[in-house]
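Project channel, design review

CF: Before we commit to the Dyadobacter linearis constructs, I'd like one complete example in the thread so the newer folks can see what an input/output pair looks like. Taking Metal-pseudopaline receptor CntO.
RD: sounds good, go ahead.
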Amino acid sequence: MKFKYLFILITILFNGLKTNAQSELGALSGRIVNADNEPVIGASVAFQNTPVGTITGADGQFSLERITPGSYVLTVSNVGYIAYSQSLKIVKGKNPFLNLQLSESRQVLTEVVVSAARSAYQVSGSSSSTRLDVPLLETPQSVQVVSSAVLRDRQAFTLNEIAGTFTGMKANNGNGSFQIRGFTAYSPTDASFLLFNGIRGNLYLWSQQPLLYNIESVELLRGPSGALFSEGSPGGVVNFITKKPLSERRATVDLSLGSWGFGRGSVDFTGPVSRDKKLLYRAIVGYDRSESFRDYQNKKNLFVAPSLTYLPSERTSFNLELNYAYSKAVQQYDNGSYIHSRPDGTFDFNYYPKNLTIQSPTDYGKTHNASATLTFNHQINDNLKVTVVERAVRNVLDYTDHIPVGRIRNDSISRGFQDWETDRFSLQTTAFATYTAKTGFLGHQIIVGADYNRYGWTQNDYSYKSSTRISILNPDYTGSIPDPSTPADESDDNKRITNLAGAYVQDQVSVGSKLKVLLSLRYDDYNGKETPLSDRDNKQGDELKTSGWIPRIAVVYLPVKNLSVYGTYLRSFNPQTSNNVLSGGPFPTRQATQYEIGTKADLISNRLSTTLSLYQINYANILTAAPTEENSHRQAAIDGTRSRGGEFSIVGNLNRLSLVAGYAFNEHELISTTTYGKKGDRFANAPKHQINFWGKYALPSQALKGLGIAAGVRYVSDQVGLLSNQNFVFPSYTVLDAAISYSRNRYQVQLNAYNLANKHYFTGSRSGVTTAGLGDPFNIRIGVSYQLW
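CF: and here is what came back for Metal-pseudopaline receptor CntO:
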């Protein structure tokens, strides 16, 4: 027994010495790109005369950890480049970031920056807008990136929770509905407004808030983006950048607790599988569960995301990523909270308590979402690169739900009962080649690509029946589930297959170092058909056959190195998602045209990045709800709307303050008088003014080292909730958030408080004046993160 206790004591002492020693070590990370700002893959990065070394991954990044403080000579080598060496000093506890840009023409190092203070909020580039790895400063489109540091500091776990951090974007409700530049982006009508690594194929259905377990950063590409991505919301698309395998071993555990029984845990493991670090892995697993400020609601999410990267050579990479997300919820679909209608036609938004819901405790939702993505990159030579992506997504939903029918009378409401099972899929193939060339004094970055997307559903089993009327303040849910033998008032039982084939060409022409012209042209062809599977399908089905051209023209001018001015012309060509006769179809094709001018600047030694943009989007044939007493699912195509406005955003670092802020102005209104509205009527869920700010300050005191405080504000002006009722206006609201965090060695502890003033506010409506999305009241979260190695 004495030996047992001695062994335990020695183990404790050894681990204590090991932990203390590790806290005395330093680290180095960075990214290596070529003269075209493309990542240099498989480059060898090592400290001369030491065993410390690694190779760059598919994104050109590297990381070296557990480095004994001291002076070293860093060497970088790769096929096609002259070996480079640099003296640098590693300091304990410091983690500098090294940016290397190699010139292929002159074969010399053009710029070396070693900085530990560079803002983690600031992201300098995005390849999603043009599929070229160029700085945001030279991108001829308004693009905003929310980095992993912002996601962490906000403790944001879903897209809905980070939407207000983007300038000019907001979540309309607790589901997958968002407003961007005055337009509602929503999965059933804009299937591709959510991209993953620039590829179509949304992992989540419209009833869910997209999860961020495996997300490194989130990009908002404002305006129509059909030139590269085909259909999408005319206001913009959201692109998720997923976490990739790293060449160094890392493991992190995150735990969070919060209001309404919220609990969340996740693990993230990554590193090399093989000794030569050519095979890398990453495994992310997460689970969360929560209730709600509303009665009877709860939900659970399970998320699993393994991935592999194989680097057979310095010019070739394969990446396989699998995602599985399971959700189980009572009342999965957020039907919002009640709104009281006064006799004079006005509305009282504070009349009903926030805990009430139209749904029944027996409602439920079960969703299985799965995706597999295989990406192949090959650098054929210094000028030619080929990328091929295969992505498959499957979504299986089983849910029942109660919805409002008619208006509230005497504090009671009639309800309908929905029972729905659907099995949906998307198979996407994307292939493109990037070629760099020169013709005289002109430089060219040419992309030629093709897409094929087969998507739809193999099952769509839906039924609607009348349910019980309930007292809002004292609901009795007895008998709320209709008799199964009762014939359905409405019923769907069908399958739908749509084939989309597209091809595009793009050329970014450089005229010297100051002027760039971007020319894009895409052709899309749609062919779809809906087929009834039984006599229960009381719709007549529909067919889709349409095609069209999508152009883009843009110019970027850099009068000085850190300032650019741009102008762009964008078009979109979006087929209607439904041409069903019962819904009022067939409908004309949706079309959007955007004109945008703007300027971007990197200020104060590139520590702050700003964007100012002015735009106008003309949108024709928007498909909107136009229900009647005879047909609650009736839709109509509005002749046209116009969205115009401006945005200003700023992100970066000022000494110890990291910030992201912005202001957006938008007017989205009808441009002609129709049976659905008058010229000048405001579009639904489109506020004129939005302000966002989030800042984190790291305290300078040595005694308080690692302590940070943060605060944020979101302001949204009033907004019309229903196009057909311009008197239905949600009041403006201001929401205040705050956080405090402490980091020490491998630990980080963080407390976030949301809606500090406990503001009662509505975020947006669906298709009526009875219920609407209600913002979360005051709530808190405490999170702990620990890096195992």
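RD: helpful, thanks. Residues 1-23, 103-119 have pLDDT under 50 and may be disordered.
CF: DSSP finds four helices and 49 strands in the chain.
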